[in-house]
Amino acid sequence: MTLSLDARNNPALTAEVLTQALPYIQRFHGATVVVKFGGNAMIDPKLSETFAADIVLMHSVGIKPVVVHGGGPQIAAMLRRIGKESEFVEGLRVTDAETLDVARMVLGGKVSRDIVSAINVHGPLAVGVSGEDAGLIRATARNPELGFVGDVSDVNPDIIHRLLAEGMIPVVSSIGSDETGQAFNINADTVAGHLAAAVGAQKLIVLTDVDGMRRDPEDPASLIKQITADELHPLVGTPTVAGGMIPKVEACLTAVDNGVASAHMINGTIEHVLLLELFTDSGIGTMIR
C-alpha cells in the first residue's frame, strides 16, 4: 500500500496503521512464512524492490520468511537468445538436457542472485539455495514426454532450519534432484507447497497476477475471500480452478492438508501486498483454511 504525501505527513494516520498492525506482529512473531514469488511482480523492478523491503520488514518484526521462486519468463527469454524454441505439453515446457542447463543457470545464477541482492540492500540477510543443495528437494520425473520436468517426492528441510536458526532469509530456486543426482525443473508453486509443509510453516503465501481465486475467473466481483480445503478440493479441474490456477491451488492444498494453518493467494502486482495481507484487519486475496 503506497500512502499519499498527506498520509505520510499525518502522525495520527501513522499511529493508526501501526496500532492495527501490532496484534498481527505479536501473533506471527517467531512464525515461519513461506512466500512464493513469481509472475509480473518478479520482472517489474519497482515491485521487486518493494517485495524485498517487505520481506526484510517481516524479518525485522520476528517473522521467519522463506522465499521460493521460479523464473519461467526469464528461462524463455534466455532460450530465445540462444535460438532455442520452447515446446509445451499441457502447459508445461518440455525440458531436454540443454533446456535444463539453461533453467539451472537462469534460476540459480540470475533470478536467485537478483532476489538475494535486492534483500541484501537492507542488510546481510538473504542466502540463495537451490533445491539441489543438501538434498533439499528430491524429485522424480513427471512424464517422459516432458523430459527433465519433475515432481516433488520428498523434502529434507534441515538446511532451511539451519539458515532460519542463524537469522537468515533462505531464497529457494525450484530445481530438485533424484537419488542419482539428476536435476529436474519443478513448478515453483509445487515446491512452495511442499516446502511450507516440511518446515512447519504457519502460512504459505502465493503471489499471483490476479486478486485471488474467483468463482468466475472472468468476474473480479466473484473473488473468494475465504474457503476451506474441503470446499476447495472438488473445485480443482472445474472452470473455477483451471489452467495456471491449478498448480497454485494444489500447492495451497498440499500445505494446508499437511499442517500449515492457512494458505493465501494474493495479487503480487499490488505494492506492499504482503504487508496488507499479514498486518491489516481486512487482509487481501483468497485464504484457504
3D architecture notes:
The protein is of the alpha/beta class and 289 residues long. Helix content is 41%, strand content 21%. It has a single domain (28-216, 227-288), classed as Acetylglutamate kinase-like (Carbamate kinase, 3-Layer(aba) Sandwich), CATH 3.40.1160.10. The protein has an 8-stranded mixed beta sheet with strand order 5-8-2-1-11-13-14-12, sandwiched between helices. Strands 6-7-10-9 form a 4-stranded mixed beta sheet. Strands 3-4 form a two-stranded antiparallel sheet. Strand 3 and strand 4 form a beta hairpin. The longest helix is centred in the middle third of the chain and has 24 residues, at 97-120. The radius of gyration is 19 Å and the shape is globular. The two termini are 25 Å apart.
Shape: globular
Return the domain count.
1
Nearest-angstrom radius of gyration? 19 Å
Order of SSEs, N→C?
A: HHEHHEHEEHEEEHEEEHEEHHEHE
How confident overall, as mean pLDDT? 92
- Uncertain runs with pLDDT below 50, 5 residues or more? 1-7
* Count of alpha/pi helices: 11
Helix content: 40-55%
Under CATH, the homologous superfamily reads: Acetylglutamate kinase-like
- CATH-defined topology: Carbamate kinase
The portion of residues forming beta strands comes to: 15-25%
Largest beta sheet: strand ordering: 5-8-2-1-11-13-14-12
